[in-house]
Amino acid sequence: MRLYLLVLSSFLVSLHLISLPLHASGCGGGEGPIPFLDISKFKATSHFTLRQEARSFVFWENKNQIMIRTYENELRRYSVSTGFLTGLSTIDFPIAPLQDPKDQYVVTEGENSIFEVNQRRWETFTGAQNPLHLFWKNNKLHTLDYTFNAHGGSVFKVYKYEPGTGAAKSSCTISWMNKNANRIRLAQGAHYPYATLYTVADMGTQQLLDVYQIDVETCVLSNANAGTNMFDGQIQSVYAFEGKGHYGVFTSDPNTNFYYASPNRRGCPAYHIDTLQAPVVIDGINPTLAAWTPALGLRIYEPGPRTFYSLLQNWPIAQLGAGDIQISKNHDKLVLSPLMQGERNRELVYMEVTDTP
Question: 25: how many CB neighbours lie within 10 A of its CB?
Fold first, then answer.
């Protein structure tokens, strides 16, 4: 198929729910939507081609390399600069879209294992029973683990793994009693030092959203709600942005479907994103989301400056989920692996985006 390349001890911490300042109005309802400005004419794109498929991947922008898991469960390294494709190992689990600062380790989703590229060896370590890998910080892989207890509550544990030690250290344990504990979900994206979680409860024709953040350093679970979060339609996705109390919400409402919460704002600005499925967050530091429809193609939305631009118009994309699209810090490079209509395997796409006068 053609591929278009375009600490060891845990301590129990009593729960302190620290609420952020609540505004008179929260997310959901209100006036809107705020329109996005189309800046597509100020963007130019170029792309390359390669005969390669990707089941999952991570983009190492510092080295301009893509680490690929193939459909034959092979781990390969593709150099965008040279075009070389190098086989490294076998791999039985999806690649987590986590980039370590040294571009040295490939992390697997749902497993306590990493691949060290320079030595071409796997490291399997002890730690979380159900690992949710969050981010790298200070050469340590930070992981969240949570379970439900017999009393209807949740137990959260934070682990930190330093490569070469063989065991992730449990840095804290939090016990949380909440009637909606069994509905807890991890928001899309994670940014040091927070793991962002949320619950959704049906309230007649609306849904109530509660957002929480765990600080992996202080081991405090905080209420991050921007007021009362009551939404029309179904809440389909929650996105973690960098900073305390920063998050986005996507709903099924046909008119106003995206909300941007920040403690620096009053309430939540409301927007409409044209999309066939819930958008995916591709940058949580400068909040950026990717969305697509068969008619409009792929669009990149930036709710801060309230702009969007279009890419890959008229491409018959069938699926594009979290982790299937990654962007460089300067937003000048994009790597994605969409599933195209009529195809069984995902195609890898590499793009370069430049600003035009």
Answer: 14
The residue assigned the tokens 């909440």 is 178
Residue with tokens 């939540």: 268
d(CA 304, CA 192): 20
How far apart CA 37 and CA 146 sit, in angstroms, is 41
d(CA 260, CA 263): 10
Edge-to-edge strand list for the sheet holding 132-137:
12-13, 169-177, 153-161, 140-148, 132-137
Beta carbons of 174 and 15 less than 8 angstroms apart: yes
**Reduced to 3 states, what is the DSSP secondary structure of residue 10?**
coil
Phi-psi region of 323 (alpha: psi -120 to 50; beta: other; left: phi over 0): left
pLDDT reported for residue 49? 57
Cα dist from 354 to 41, 133, 159, 312, 331, whole Å:
11, 32, 39, 15, 9
3-state secondary structure of 40: helix
CA distance 296 to 315: 9
Separation between Cα atoms, residue 34 and residue 301, nearest integer Å? 13
Query: Phi and psi dihedrals of 41, rounded to 5?
Result: -70, -15
Tens of pLDDT, residue by residue over 237-295, are 999 999 999 999 999 999 999 999 988 766 688 999 999 899 999 999 999 999 998 88
Does residue 181 sit in helix, strand or coil?
helix
Cα separation, 160 vs 133, in Å, equals: 10
The SS3 assignment for 183 reads: helix
Whether residue 316 is predicted with pLDDT greater than 80 in this model: the reply is yes
Spatial separation of the C-alpha atoms in residues 221 and 197, rounded to whole Å:
10
* 233 close to 30: Cβ distance less than 8 angstroms: no
Give the chain's radius of gyration (CA, Å).
21
Euclidean distance between CA atoms 32 and 2, whole angstroms: 43
Which residue in this structure is represented by tokens 């898991």?
A: 69
